[in-house]
């Protein structure tokens, strides 16, 4: 027995050494994302090897080419031998890719293609003429590409090749990335280098990376990309830039990805030579119509405009005493003849408005429900403030039955530790999407369009992509790009399943790796909430760049830019009263939801101080006082990061050295910064309430003044 154990240990040590050697040669640096296609383990390789000896793809479009090329690339990597393309099924197993129109064998199969629309697909293992065949079928070529990527995911994650029977289609129509990329290649809230779009070299030089970007997006079902920052520059709408946009659109088109641009509302003045941008002025309307005509002449499948107007200093219709519907409709009329849409953002809050900032978007947009053209979609952030570590869902979801809505999630982690903190956002988005609006369905049902029968709606994610070699600035932030796409395709998908698929494809298929890694990912968002803004606190980050804690900041130009506006801590208590005795933001929710949020005993503890101002000695469910609980939550967040570090350390045998070291180094930074958040926050709140720390809680490492004195003028993501 002992001997067997010894032998086992020796064998695994030997295998480890071997694999470390193999890792050293693979040069894994994260560029390949979840599309690494490294060889499968031998057993699975043999089974798939029998089922897939050749590829039969009869369609001829660029999209079919992309699908076939991906299958060749993927399966030859996974199976360790080439996948030849042939004209018809030979004597061994084959993959057959086609639409009923391109492939008579598929037309003859009576597959349930009526259920999958234009973008869906069917994958089925079957027999044709006595041969084993895996069929990928769709109504349109883009469905074939999505089906090809799905088959590759199945192979990568170790699904058995026998008995495949998948019928799938996206639930949401618009699945978009929003790049906050400037024309000088800086990226607002970008933590992964500079913009991918090399405007200076476009249109003549097409960086091969554009194709890899398109592949990665198509693999998760993204079907549109807004190339430019919402804080827009009108120049992108000039003819030379449109030529550059056209070049990018040409690369993305075979992958089913349309391009969109942000439209600066004052463009008619800035690049059109007009004196006004008043949306009701005939000359302004004519200018936008002509501009839209020019864009569509250049890019016939242009998606449309995304607009940030009358928000944080951006121009908009209110500059001319018009409302948001006037502005949106004017642009909608311009793109309508070409089939374009206008995504008008609801992220508005005004300098001169004393109303609780959390209420302003609803107050502005709810009365406009029913006043927008049918090609206007209002784009709403997941919560009513601004991508905080945790927010209740935005009250506009469910409240705009006559206006299609797009959900705006932020993939880039502006308020969640930038690229260095490991925070898997799948759980946060799942929580929002599954929230019951109280208007007859969940948030997911609103954004997939089914609750209010929207003709078009969907999800947009503010991208975390830059020109860093690993795309997202950290290996684990790739998971957020991935999870966003998967949830946009299916807003009911499970964050845990998505995390597991990602971990398998990105790192290792071994259960010994996948289980602990998924556990780390699933706990990570809550950890950040705990060490930054526990119990419903929000907007306590330092000024401008939002790097690190600044709960003491109270001197900014507008009240609602100050953290003190949000936490309202004084000697007696803490929190923002949004019940009827306070700002009454709760009443913007459906009554069934408002009742829960308004009740300090029923509101989820993680939203307690979002909705309630409570005395420091308020009794929590744990029996502890609010103050003690708050301090313990900060500590819980730090403890979780330490656990994450230890787990990652134990996973060293499964991960190539470079990526393992990268993640380990970032986790060290995360631990340091989690402690910083905890200590600075506790030191500050203690200076307000003068209460002792609960037993066992560590003393802050530095004085409050020392935390206040820290300054980071060059923190990333904050181009001026
Ligand atoms: C936040 C963010 C800004 C961004 C804005 C928006 O305020 O800090 O950089 O422009 O959101 O979503 O428009």
Can you walk me through this structure?
The strands form three sheets. An eight-stranded parallel β-barrel has the order 7-8-9-10-11-12-13-14. Strands 2-1-3-5-4-6 form a six-stranded mixed β-sheet. The protein has helices at 2-26, 42-51, 62-79, 104-107, 141-156, 208-219, 239-252, 267-270, 282-298, 324-335, 357-365, 426-434, 443-447, 478-489, 495-506, 511-532, 563-567, 591-597, 608-611, 626-650, 657-689, 704-709, and strands at residues 54-57, 85-86, 94-98, 121-128, 131-137, 165-168, 174-178, 224-226, 258-262, 304-307, 341-345, 376-381, 405-410, 458-462, 573-574, 614-615. The chain has three domains: 2-168, Chitobiase, domain 2 (2-Layer Sandwich), CATH 3.30.379; 174-506, Alpha-Beta Barrel (TIM Barrel), CATH 3.20.20.80; 530-576 and 613-709, Alpha-glucuronidase, C-terminal domain (Alpha-d-glucuronidase, C-terminal Domain). α11 links the parallel β11 and β12. The protein contains 22 helices and 16 strands. The structure holds alpha-D-glucopyranuronic acid. Alpha-D-glucopyranuronic acid binds at residues 188-189, 230-231, 308, 347, 386, 414. Alpha-D-glucopyranuronic acid is lined by residues 188-189, 230-231, 308, 347, 386, 414. It comes from Sphingomonas parva.
């Amino acid at each position: 027995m002992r001997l067997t154990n010894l032998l086992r240990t020796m064998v695994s040590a030997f295998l480890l050494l071997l694999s470390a050697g193999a890792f050293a040669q693979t040069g894994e640096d994260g560029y390949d994302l979840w599309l690494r296609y490294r060889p499968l383990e031998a057993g699975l390789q043999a089974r798939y090897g029998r089922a897939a000896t050749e590829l039969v793809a009869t369609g001829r479009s660029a999209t079919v080419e992309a699908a076939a090329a991906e299958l060749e690339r993927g399966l030859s990597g996974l199976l360790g031998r080439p996948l030849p393309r042939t004209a018809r099924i030979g004597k061994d197993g084959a993959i057959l890719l086609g639409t009923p129109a391109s492939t008579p064998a598929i037309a003859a199969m009576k597959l349930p293609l009526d259920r999958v629309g234009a973008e869906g697909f069917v994958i089925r293992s079957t027999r044709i003429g006595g041969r084993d065949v895996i069929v990928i079928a769709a109504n349109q070529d883009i469905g074939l590409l999505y089906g090809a990527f799905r088959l590759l995911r199945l192979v990568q994650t170790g699904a058995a090749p026998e008995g495949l029977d998948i019928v799938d289609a996206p639930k949401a129509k618009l699945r978009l990335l929003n790049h906050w990329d400037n024309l000088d290649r800086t990226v607002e809230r970008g933590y992964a280098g500079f913009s991918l779009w090399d405007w200076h070299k476009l249109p003549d030089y097409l960086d091969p990376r554009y194709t890899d970007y398109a592949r990665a997006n198509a693999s998760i079902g993204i079907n549109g990309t807004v190339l430019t920052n919402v804080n827009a520059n009108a120049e992108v709408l000039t003819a030379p830039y449109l030529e550059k946009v056209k070049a990018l659109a040409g690369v993305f088109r075979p992958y089913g990805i349309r391009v969109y641009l942000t439209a600066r509302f004052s463009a008619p003045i800035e690049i059109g030579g007009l004196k006004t941008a008043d949306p009701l002025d005939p000359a302004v309307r004519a200018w936008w119509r002509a501009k839209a005509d020019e864009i569509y002449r250049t890019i016939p499948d242009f998606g449309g405009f995304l607009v940030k107007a009358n928000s944080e200093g951006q121009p908009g219709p209110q500059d001319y005493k018009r409302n948001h519907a006037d502005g949106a409709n004017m642009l909608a009329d311009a793109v309508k003849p070409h089939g374009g849409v206008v995504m008008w953002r609801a992220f508005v809050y005004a300098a001169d408005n004393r109303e609780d900032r959390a209420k302003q978007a609803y107050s502005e947009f709810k009365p406009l429900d029913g006043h927008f053209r049918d090609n206007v979609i209002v784009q709403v952030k997941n919560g009513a403030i601004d991508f905080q570590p945790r927010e209740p869902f935005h009250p506009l979801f469910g409240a705009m039955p006559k206006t299609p809505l797009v959900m705006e999630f932020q993939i880039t982690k502006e308020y969640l530790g930038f690229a260095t903190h490991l925070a898997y956002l799948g759980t946060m988005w799942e929580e929002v999407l599954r929230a019951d609006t109280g208007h007859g369905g969940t948030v997911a049902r609103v954004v997939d369009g089914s609750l209010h029968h929207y003709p078009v709606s969907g999800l947009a994610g503010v991208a975390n992509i830059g020109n860093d070699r690993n795309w997202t600035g950290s290996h684990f932030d790739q998971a957020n790009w991935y999870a966003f796409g998967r949830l946009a395709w299916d807003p009911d998908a499970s964050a845990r399943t998505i995390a597991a698929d990602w971990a398998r494809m990105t790192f290792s298929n071994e259960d010994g790796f996948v289980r602990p890694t998924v556990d780390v990912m699933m706990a990570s968002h809550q950890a950040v909430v705990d060490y930054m803004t526990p119990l419903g606190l929000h907007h306590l980050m330092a000024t401008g760049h939002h790097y690190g804690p600044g709960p003491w900041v109270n001197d900014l130009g507008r009240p609602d830019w100050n953290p003190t506006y949000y936490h309202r801590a004084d000697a007696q208590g803490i929190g923002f009263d949004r019940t009827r005795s306070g700002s009454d933001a709760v009443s913007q929710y459906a009554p069934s939801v408002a009742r829960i949020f308004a009740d300090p005993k029923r509101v989820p503890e993680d939203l307690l101080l979002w909705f309630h101002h409570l005395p420091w000695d308020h009794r929590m469910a744990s029996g502890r006082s609010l103050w003690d609980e708050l301090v313990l939550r900060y500590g819980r967040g730090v403890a979780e990061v330490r656990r994450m570090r230890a787990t990652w350390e134990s996973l060293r045998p499964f991960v190539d050295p470079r990526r393992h070291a990268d993640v380990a180094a970032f986790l060290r930074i995360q631990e340091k910064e989690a402690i910083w958040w905890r200590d600075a926050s506790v030191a500050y709140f203690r200076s307000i309430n003068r209460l002792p720390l609960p037993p066992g809680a560590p003393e802050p490492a530095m004085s409050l003044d020392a935390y206040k004195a820290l300054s980071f003028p060059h923190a990333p993501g904050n181009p001026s």
